[in-house]
């Protein structure tokens, strides 16, 4: 079936048989059972990261509502499995820890990345160490102890695109993690280009309304078992209510992405001709993100918007504007930001579902006043 159809039905295929229309929301933290010996045997299986399809035991191991979201996102990304976490950074942390516990702590990463991702990799807080490389340098950066290659495409905040298939080929047997938050499975599915690991900050477009936080990794079942083991012992679990909202968000994801992308493309075209805009960044695959480098004070532009929301994050139904150098990428040293192409004049726009003319008038007046 088409992606639009599966976005509506994935994770819900059994609802008719259950006799319900809305997805059941299970808030249980624990699940009763009279046969303790059988539960103990099942728990031994669960701690290996394998799921047996039976009733849950404890919500840190699994939850039926969250499993529906995982099933749906895996299907949309074309992967065997998905493992959800409390945030995008919790999801990334699990992948880094997976490399460490497998005895391969070296990471090859391509800048730019989301600022906190960059900081976590650079800091070595989880026992990894990194070689930063351009996309064409990945092959030469691989070592025997390399456990992960990390790319983000389109990248945050410059919207730089990476040839995912080429990076996968260069990485050889080393798994490639692609942060697909900006593109979503509507615009690209990295697994189809060979990536083993597809990451989302589900807080963004998957939720789509700025009211839920989560992260998720789509991957093969073997890798999913490792992530479930880590989630079980570290406790970075997604709340059932968040799983419910994220599954609901998937049903409108294609419609939202396409509508926002059409508006973003038109705004990118107009902004490229604006006298107060020095450069526009917009990816070839489209999407709802536009970054601009402005003449003058970028913070003054933010202070003048009235329709666009001046706030960090992205992917909501309302349009957002923020200054990466002050917020999302402030944690990076200034010289590192500059090396990654993140100018101090750069503003990142996440386009929502407002009318394009209202957004244009707001941005135009803000740019002229600033």
Characterization of this structure:
The chain has 370 residues and is of the alpha/beta class. The strands form 2 sheets. It has a 7-stranded mixed beta sheet, sandwiched between helices. It has a 5-stranded mixed beta sheet with strand order 8-9-12-11-10, covered by helices on one side. α4 packs parallel to α11. The chain is globular. The relative contact order is 0.14. The mean pLDDT is 95.
Task: List unreliable stretches of 5+ residues.
Answer: none
Structural class: alpha/beta
SS strand fraction: 5-15%
**What is the molecular shape?**
globular
Please state the average pLDDT score.
95
How large is the radius of gyration?
A: 21 Å
Walk across the major sheet and give the strand order. 1-7-6-5-4-2-3
End-to-end CA span: 49 Å
Number of strand segments? 12
Individual helix count = 15
Q: Largest sheet at a glance?
A: 7 strands, mixed
Q: Secondary-structure element sequence?
A: HHHHEHEHEHEHEHEEHHHEEHEEHEH
